[in-house]
Design a protein that fits this description.
about 270 residues; MetI-like fold; sugar transport; MetI-like; cell membrane; MetI-like_sf
Length: about 270
């Protein structure tokens, strides 16, 4: 009798999973359908790459280079992710292992800043970027995201959990702070590094509002904004729109499937 509630729970979870994943499966399959079959059956009668060819050819005709936009997204996401890991590790070390006046005040301020949604800072950030003359540059897409309050918080908490004996032994061998961070703390907190890196990469890859505001040059646009500009012009062609959505989301799906363990760890650590 005890198995019956568990069976019911599994059935409910399976049904919820199907409801959640169905739109993504439908989008993927429909992107390979001819446009006149999209609202037909679930499976395409014939698989075609015409929608993907259309979006690539149309992007070139509109002088909105698709491959360059993909390269921009990769470059920006990788650069910001590396920058966030470096700044978070350095600040986290200072807040967790160095004693100085105001340390707790700074840490509490970082936690307090995490309460506010990011869009509240868009206007002052835009004014700052404009005054620096960085509008329509890749630097404008990278610079404001190089420091993450959440990343600092995660590294600070992880570094605090490392026993002092490891650091004292390293200092007895003549190690400086930078050596301790890179050779002792980072290897011992590799899960935090992976979690912060993955969530940062995904957040920057999916970022739309900020690039839309500060970049109008198609050669510097990330993929998310370029596809949105394409959809505004060819939105009535549902097939290419779905193909563009697949191209935008599939890298994140692959990353999730490969690093699923770290995503679950990140969610559990954020809730603690």
């Amino acid at each position: 009798m005890k198995k019956i509630p568990m069976i019911i729970l599994y059935v409910i979870l399976f049904a919820a999973s199907v409801v959640w994943i169905y739109p993504y499966i439908w989008m993927l399959l429909s992107s390979f359908k001819p446009t006149n079959e999209i609202y037909g059956g679930f499976l395409p009668s014939q698989f075609t790459l015409d929608n993907y060819k259309f979006i690539l050819e149309a992007a070139d005709k509109m002088e909105r280079p698709f491959i360059q936009a993909l390269g921009n997204s990769i470059f920006i996401s990788v650069t910001v992710t590396f920058g966030v890991l470096v700044t978070s590790a350095l600040v986290g070390f200072g807040l967790s292992r160095l004693s100085f006046k105001g340390r707790n005040v700074i840490f509490n301020f970082i936690i307090f800043q995490m309460i506010f949604p990011g869009f509240l800072f868009i206007v002052p950030l835009y004014v700052l970027i404009r005054n620096l003359g960085l509008i329509d540059t890749r630097t404008a897409l990278i610079l404001p995201s190089l420091v993450s309050a959440w990343g600092v918080f995660m590294f600070t908490q992880s570094f605090r959990a490392v026993p002092n004996e490891y650091l004292e032994a390293a200092r007895m061998d003549g190690a400086n702070d930078l050596w301790i961070i890179t050779k002792v703390l980072i290897p011992l907190t590799s899960s935090t590094v992976s979690i912060v890196g993955l969530f940062t990469f995904i957040g920057i890859w999916d970022n739309f509002m900020w690039p839309l505001i500060v970049v109008s040059d198609y050669s510097k646009m990330p993929l998310s904004v370029l596809l949105a500009s394409f959809n505004m012009q060819y939105g009535s062609y549902l097939g290419p729109v779905l193909a563009g959505s697949v191209l935008q989301t599939m890298p994140m799906v692959v990353i999730f499937l490969v690093f699923r363990k770290y995503f679950l760890q990140g969610i559990s650590m954020s809730l603690k």
